[in-house]
Amino acid sequence: MIELVSQDRCIGCRLCVKVCPTNVFAMEGKLAVIARQEDCQTCFMCEAYCPVDALYVAPQADKSANPDEQELIESGRLGSWRKEIGWNPGAEDTMAERDTTPFFEVFTEAYRGKQQEIGK
Amino acid sequence: MPQQQQATTDVLVLGGGPAGAWAAWSAASQGAKVILADKGYLGTSGATAPGGTTLLVIPPVAELREQAVQDRLKAGGYLSENAWIHRVLDQVEQNLQLVEEWGYPFPKDEDGRPLRTHLHGPEYMKIMRRVVRKAGVRIWDQSPALELLHDQHGVGGARGINRLTGESWEVKANAVIMATGGCAFLSKGLGCNVLTGEGLLMSAEAGAELSGMEFTRQYAPSFADGTVTRGRMLAWATLYDAAGRPLHRGDRTFGSIPELMLKGPVYASLDLADTKEKQEFLRNAHPIFFMPLERAGINPFKDKFLLTLRYEGTMRGTGGLRLTGPGCETSVPGLYAAGDAASREKVTGAISGGGAYNASWAICSGSWAGRSAARLALQQPHPAERRMLRAAGRYGMPAGAGTARTLDAKPLIAAVQQEILPLRINYFRSEPVVAAALQRLNRLMPELGGQVPATVQGIVQSREAAAMLNVGRWIYTAALARKESRGLQRLAEYPALDPHQTHRLILSGVNTIGIRTESVPHAHELRIPGEERAI
User: Could you tell me which residue ranges the FAD-dependent oxidoreductase 2 FAD-binding domain spans (chain B) (predicted)?
Assistant: First the structure.
């Protein structure tokens, strides 16, 4: 679930309010806030679109993880999804460009080996 | 609701996932004026945007294609239509060529030929938004449609609400394309909570028929705390029980997980990817699978993580609005359907279209619906702005209110989920259990006659509750009517395929649900004795 709108980083651009598919954010004064956390679908799209990496979506869909902002910054997790997609300024390539892999099933067949039965 | 924003257009597209985006682009490319209204945001909405999608592409080699079509026909219980699969294979190739021209970086093989087998969602949908805008489409984000407008000539527009401003909107249009996706009952599969079935409900209220609603027994494995449903990754997993004993290895179809879960919790570890090279391949192919696990402190290649199953409803199931023609027409004039809002039986038959088939279907059905809707709209003998259109919405709307009680959407949604999500009712289907669940759902119907709270959330969620309740009723009605097991439909009492039921089940109506059968072109090919057990 969405756990953090960094009030230090938020520039009040409203983009998260606009792009959230389940309408979780609202503006309070000049900054965005989490207005309906229970409606969050943990899709990480807001993080991808936030231009200042002010948002953090914890992977847990149902329980609140209450992460610490400083810890998120230090571990590099704040903004990490946007960076991985390649939408951060100065990105060398995008996720789509990095995926030069052949067809998934072909790779699986070639490298995983035959499916193994257990207990038979 | 006071009318606050009004517009007239040629084509109105409802939904901003891939199908809606392609429909809008396609209609605009025919010269039609187009408005696209989405509940969320074209670019983030729907099942594709947050993750990605594998595409159905088969090289234009006659034998390869014929083989794929024949395989599907058999696997899909002879309910698919060969001509439609061929159409999809032809069309998707043209459209993916465009996606590449628009800037999507498909990888290339050694000979420099693009490998157009997979799309990363965020990039794909960002491109689609740009292209749709460039084509002149007016995009209304955060603007869920609530009901259709209609008259004796058919559908002629829709009404909805802007979630950010609270303003209501009304668009009169000569043609409407329903591209609102399937219904996944707020089960929190990645990107699927936008998909709550209002498109099916509003179409049914306007008289549209549904087909294939019984083929909806699809659950996807996900990391238990999380949302990401990438079952294909489990091809690289060993499944373990709570004591750490291996249960299964490299199950591509993950079909046995519900059975395993009956016995106790199931854990997975991608330990079949046992070299750096293999791990890197998987990590780059599906970053969305790994990122949440890593954030939770789990190394999926080493650690065992608990699995859950998330219900995928009609989304990775197959049912939806019945299509009546090659232009993705529905049974109501002026109303078209594309993507998961439409029944995908024509290309998938009785089995799931999950992954490749549905992705290519969204692209193709969107393109066809857009083209034919534009043609109709531009020749319309009864222009929408001169028609006496009525609003068709009733269930979970002020027009259907019959009691003084308040409609409290959240507990109602929870009550619907209680009947629809459990494996013991909906996966391990049996006549008495499904019939009892259907009865309990029927008894919830009077709740929809409550007073809708006059807030944005109240208005939108009341309609979502009404849609999920009725999609649930359609699913169980169809499941009880198909007294056999075929593809995604199973009934414990009828474990085998019955060749006499090689037809489609067509539903109509909301309060009273009508049901009839429709013949399929390849039914006569299901003749070989003993083959039924293989399906």
Answer: 10-355
